[in-house]
Amino acid sequence: MLWRIFASVTFGKLLFIPSYRSTDFEVHRNWLAITHSLPLNKWYIDDTSQWTLDYPPLFAWFEYILSWGALLFDPEMLKVNNLNYASQNTILFQRISVILTDIVYALGVQKCLYSFGNNQGGKVQKDAEKWFSSSTILAFLLLCNVGLFMVDHIHFQYNGFLTGILLLSVGSILQKENLKAAFWFSILLNLKHIYLYIAPVYAVYLLRSYCFDIQKSKMTFHFKRLIKLGVIVVTTFGFTYGPFVSQLQQVLSRLFPFENRGLCHAYWAPNFWALYNIVDKILAFLGHKLGWIDPLSKVTASMTGGLVQEFEHAILPSIGPKTTLVFTILAILPAVVILLKQPNQPRVFIRAIVLCAFASFLFGWHVHEKAILIVITPLTLLAVSSQEDCRLFMLLSITGHVSLFPLLFTPFENVLKIVVVLTYSLASYSFLSALHYDPKSKGTLLKFRSWERFFLYGLGFVALFESCIHSMVDPSGRLPFLPLMIMSVYCAVGIIYVWFSFVIGSLKTEKKISKQK
Amino acid sequence: MEVPYKLEVIALTTIIIKLGVSVFPYSGKNQPPKFGDYEAQRHWMEITVNLPIQDWYRNTTDNDLLYWGLDYPPLTAYQSYLTGSVAKKINQDYVKLHVSQGFENFDHQYFMRMSVLVSDCIFFVSALYFYIRSLKMSNKYKWVFFALSSHSGLTLIDYGHFQYNCVSLGLTLWAIIFVSQGKNVLAAIAFSAALNFKQMELYHAILLFAGFYLLASCQPKGSSLPSQLKNLVQIGAATVATFAIIWYPFLQIHDWLLQQVIVRLFIPFQRGIFEDYVANFWCTLNVVIKIKRLLNPTSITSGTIT
């Protein structure tokens, strides 16, 4: 069933090859060119194009391997000086590379299905073949995830491939293959360092549940296991960064460009700082109007100037990277708590990943809105097994996917994004309702709380405003960032609500279990 | 496991597939001087919006019939007029007389594709949706619904090549639905409309009308002759009335206008027994027996496909 779903979705993805591509398309073409045409020591130095290499070396190797395929399609794209080169064959090649690397995603989903298919875990194989079993629904929810579709196959990125490796790692944890999990996660970190967001979870879980062992109420520390983990991590990082040891400083400065990036991206990710920004703006506005502020002082902070520049807050204290780190660490604490208190339980591990990803998304420095996908994917795994998590998953996925709308703004994609998000949300809602709620009893549908329902109605309006209404009401474009700002702030409220509910839910179950002991 | 909203999800999925086909090029893209069916539809919008009704089917200085002259019945012309009026509001350049010939532009493609999607949803998808829903075991037919609403042939022609077959096919479907529900008068109106949109529906006409007459005369069983006659008259009147309303402007103006329109509708007869590539008997026969030359020694295959 999984492969049938994957095949169908692949055909669908092929249909969208000619659609809108963002600058990320040129970014990856440039990386193909750099890795293919330049020697290793120039990879992280070359700046012919403004889109310099800012992913870890393993991804550069990945692009290098791809570039050999590119030769078959159009060698011109591999010339470093061919900026913005986008022939038909180039487009075809790049799009197909994303579509094919999604096989890794399918393999990751498959690994997770083995553990999540059935609550009993036993007859998973049979279940996976049935039409509406929880395995099939999970496969559908993951493989057809509309956020991945919009970001990977239209905007253009390789998140499917990366999420696949994440799922291989998570799947290994679910099957108690801790060393494999460590291996896959190291690989993942060496492909895209954004996954540092959830690295603490791995560190705590592997230390607590793998290196420490409780048998007959006696805790033993397995030093050997720690060594094994260390070897895996060090070797992977060694192989990746080895060739670049002489330029380590340069590589790291490319990976972590703190100087050039502000608290928020040009389009504020819908996180806590978006709310902080809007409060600051409102206070500044009120301050002007009510005469609290000297009109000559520079109070108008431009936060969505279109460039990723630093800025200062007008009234509230300005936030720096260290502050965000503190907040993030505080927010990660619930994840750490449940990992320490309930060791060796893969389900708890997944909860911890969700909590940690949430924390990094909500309080991190210069978060991209696409990072919401890192929260949604693990939550999908939980959605098929618990009613509470299912409801939160629905809220998060709808809000998260709508928050990605500003990425696709051309006319076709405007219509497309509404249709695909609507379809995915309705399909998820239908399948999950059927899964969790007994049709014979009264409540056949997943029920949201009344304020959640109102939030969703409002979200629909915000989505329509962003895609169509704003351009009709303001054709000259006097306030180009208004819809983006509204979208950020509104979605931030929703996402913070889901986070809060999820934290409370996680700590409650933890309390319940510790009471039982 | 009872999954709610099945049909709605399927309908939305087929729309995604259709949108996917829409991003690809259309017939005649970037191919001057004649372009293709897309340009034909755009040209009809230009003609109907700018010229008076009596000139729509006539060869005048403003309307060169050799360049994609109107050869569908009036309902297509009215639909072109409606769509063209919307086009004019969005951007005058889409339908400026003469100047807009061969107009190709990304936004324009988006507009045209959306017009097909809207027509499709109003006529074709709606018919399928309501019919499947009305069946008692709609659960069983969900795949039928999917197969029909995503009908690859129709999708490729309408959303790819570019035409509006969904309107006439949709109206025919409604007619069939009405017949199955016993609402013969509505069926007659729907099918007459379909026929007046595209004369290709004549293919279905024989069966439908024969079916009608048979139904009208045999149903209900044991009913008296007067009631059967009543049914017949009702259907006949509905059909005639639909035709009359649609053709009214052309009936009003004399000066051989009606004849001109009919000539335009059946112009394919001038083109010979078959045209270009078509998977039918005559074309296949032609491989062995040169039937085209036998029937009309001077006919030349034209380059256009209807």
UniProtKB/TrEMBL annotation, chain A:
One of its GO terms (biological process) is protein N-linked glycosylation. The chain crosses the membrane at residues 131-151, 181-205, 226-244, 324-341, 348-365, 371-387, 392-409, 415-434, 454-473, 485-507. It is found in: Endoplasmic reticulum membrane. Keywords: Endoplasmic reticulum, Glycosyltransferase, Membrane, Transferase, Transmembrane, Transmembrane helix. Pathway: Protein modification; protein glycosylation. It comes from the Eukaryota. InterPro entries: Glyco_trans_ALG6/ALG8. It is an enzyme of class 2 (transferase). One of its GO terms (cellular component) is endoplasmic reticulum membrane. Its EC number is 2.4.1.-. It is a multi-pass membrane protein. One of its GO terms (molecular function) is dolichyl pyrophosphate Glc1Man9GlcNAc2 alpha-1,3-glucosyltransferase activity. Belongs to the ALG6/ALG8 glucosyltransferase family. This is Alpha-1,3-glucosyltransferase. It comes from Daphnia magna.
Automatic annotation (TrEMBL), chain B:
Belongs to the ALG6/ALG8 glucosyltransferase family. The chain crosses the membrane at residues 7-26, 110-131, 143-162, 174-195, 202-220, 232-251. Its main location: endoplasmic reticulum. Its EC number is 2.4.1.-. Pathway: Protein modification; protein glycosylation. It is a multi-pass membrane protein. Keywords: Endoplasmic reticulum, Glycosyltransferase, Membrane, Transferase, Transmembrane, Transmembrane helix. InterPro entries: Glyco_trans_ALG6/ALG8. This is Alpha-1,3-glucosyltransferase. Coiled coil: none annotated.
